[in-house]
C-alpha cells in the first residue's frame, strides 16, 4: 500500500504545485463529499473517545483494580497526550503529507484502542489510552487540514466546516450515549474495542476517496524541544488543578505544579521565537482575528465538558438513571448542535462570523444560566432540556464561525499546524477547565452542611453542580466579550477570499 505521492496526479487528485496565479483542479464533486464523510467519521471517533469511557469508567475501575485517586487518568492520559502533541502532529501533516498522516493516525488509533480495550490492569489501561492520544494527535489536524485543501469555494467550505463542527461538538454527547449502551448491554471494554473496526473502515475509505496532497518542503528539523516543553507545561497545569482538590490551593505541591506549568509555557514561547522551524509559528495566532478565534476555541469547551460531566452525575446519582438512559437523555445536544452548525453555514456568508460568534455565545450563556437553576424538584423536561437546546444551538453557531476565522488566509505551509491549533485549544481548554471546575465543585461540596443525610447529600450535590454551571456561564460570557473585541472580519472578507493554491482542491 503506497502512501507516497506519485510524480503525476490524475484529475481526481490535488495538484498543489501550481503558481498562485492559476486555479487548482477540483476533485470530482461527488468524491469530495464522500471524502468529507470519511473525514467526519474519523473526527467523530477521536472526539467521542474523550467521553465514551465516562459512563463505563466505574466498571473499568472495579475490573482492573484502579484506585479512586488514579481513575482520572483514564480521561487525562488521553486528552493530555492528544492536546499536547497536536501541534507536532500538525507539523508532521504539513511535512509528510496530510493524507499520509490521516491514514497512519487511523491505523495507530485502531491498534491502541484494541490495546486499551484488552488491558489487564490499570497501568496497561492508562498506557493504551495514552497511545490513543498520541495517534489522535496525528489524525485530528490531518483531518481538518484535508477539509481546507478539499473545499475551496466559500459556501462549500462553510458547509463542510458545519459538518465538522457538528461532529466535533456533538461527538462528546454521542460518546456518552454509545458508552452507556455498550456498557449496559456488552462490556466496558467495547467502549474502546469498537474504535478498531471503525478506524479500519475509515482507513479503507480514506485510501479510496481522500485526495493526495503534496507535502510542504521541510526547511529544518522538527521542533522537538518545543513539543516536549508545551506537553510538560500542559500536564503540569492539569495535574496542579487536580492536586488542588486533594491538597488545597495553597499547598506546596499545588503551587509548585501551577508555577512550573506557567514557567514551561513561557519557555515554550521563548523557544518558538528563536528556532528557525517553530512548532507553532507565532504569526498564526498573532493576527488579531485568528488570535481571538483560538482564544474562543480554548474557552468554549470548558463549559461544554463541565456540562457533560456534571449532568452525567446528576442523571445517574441524583435521578437514578441507568447508563443507557443517561446517554439517551443527552441525545438532544448533538441534534441541536448539528442544527446550530447548519444554520451557521447558511448565515455566515450573509452576516459574517462576528455576529454569529456573539449570538451563539449569548445563547449558550443563557442556557447555562438556566441550567444553573437546578434544585431537588427539577425535572429533565422542564429544567434540563430547554437549557440543553440553547447551549447546543449556540455552540453550533460558535464552532463553525470560530473555525472559519481561525483558518482564514492561513499560509499553505502552516495549514496543518493551524488546524492542529484549533484542536489543541479545544482539548487543552477542556482538560484544564474540567480540572479547575472539578476542584471548585469538590470544594463547594465539602463546605455544604448535612451531607451525612440522604436529603442533605442530594442538596449538596445539586448545589455544587449549579456552581459548575454558573462558572460555565461565566466562561461563555468571556467568549462573547472576546468575540466583540477581537473579531473584526466582515462578510466581505469571506466573499473576497482568494484561496492560496496550496489550500484548494
TrEMBL record:
Ranges annotated as spanning the membrane: 33-60, 72-89, 101-120, 126-149, 161-182, 188-210, 222-242, 248-271, 292-315, 327-348, 355-372, 384-407, 428-447, 467-487
Keyword Transferase (UniProt): no
InterPro entries per UniProt: MFS (IPR011701), MFS_dom (IPR020846), MFS_trans_sf (IPR036259), Sugar_transporter_CS (IPR005829)
Pfam families xref list: MFS_1
Membrane topology: Multi-pass membrane protein
Record key words, sorted: Cell membrane, Membrane, Transmembrane, Transmembrane helix, Transport
PROSITE patterns linked: MFS (PS50850), SUGAR_TRANSPORT_1 (PS00216)
Residue ranges occupied by any Major facilitator superfamily (MFS) profile domain in the UniProt entry: 35-491
Region (Disordered): 1-25
Subcellular location: Cell membrane
Major location (coarse): membrane
Record-linked CDD domains: MFS_MMR_MDR_like
Protein name in the entry: Drug resistance transporter, EmrB/QacA subfamily
Source species: Williamsia maris
Phylogenetic lineage: Bacteria, Bacillati, Actinomycetota, Actinomycetes, Mycobacteriales
